[in-house]
Amino acid sequence: MTLLPQPSIQQSKRTRGVALALALLLPEASGAESLTTWDFSSALWVAGSHRELAESGANPQNQILKLPEREGIVEFRPDLRVTRSSLVFTARPRFIGTATKADVLGVSQKTETEQELDWIDAYLSWSVADAWAVHYGIHNFQWGPAEAVSPSNRIFRDPVTVKDTLYTTAGRHLLRVNYTPSETWSQVFMAELSDNGEPEFEAEEDYARKALLKNEFSWAGGANYAGLVVGWREELGAWLGEYLNLELTDGLYFYFDASHQRGGAGLVSHSILPWGNCLKSGRARE
Fold it and tell me: Whole-prediction pTM value?
């Protein structure tokens, strides 16, 4: 079974971006000592399953649906980090190979194989100064424990509700600028520059460019924090979000997250962790 797929046009563009980032980080060919450091790790998962199909008049001996009875999955996740001076390149691809086999009329059929290549992360970071950092490429940036329904983060709003142990959130094409003048205050500007092929959070909505500015203040050693988010989405205009995390006692937190938009959709999420979750959502007009 071949695990490396033929790259699509979108994957080829991402691969060229990875090659360009590596070219910027590689040292020049000379006798001077290299200042480039490499950090590499990887994870490999192999799984298999077998199931017996019940006989059905709608699918006699599996002639109609030809459902697979045996399945094998191999997933490989390399994790590469290259550092040179103030530049850091991070690459986390995800290779998935799947093989399935069905029996029809009691006869084993040809093995069907599929291959997939995703980029969880492939981005370049530049520490411009002590308080400033710039990140560009395919990557994730989320906050708070609300995960799939974090209302104040309208760039990462994952619609998947059923997640297995191998699930991961696909990275998005982002430009992100971090400003951290102190240990208690930070600002993040983030813009999604192009589509990554993932569906939008809103059903049947096409991709739209988005940007946001997040301001966060923390106290009690970072256990408590509050944030205000101002965002913009193409064709829908500006929106406002806020979130709050409070430590009620050791190991018990209260988290609140909300967003608001005039004439648009509003979403509120609040949780008491780790003892339970409570989610409330709806259409809001102001």
Answer: 0.72
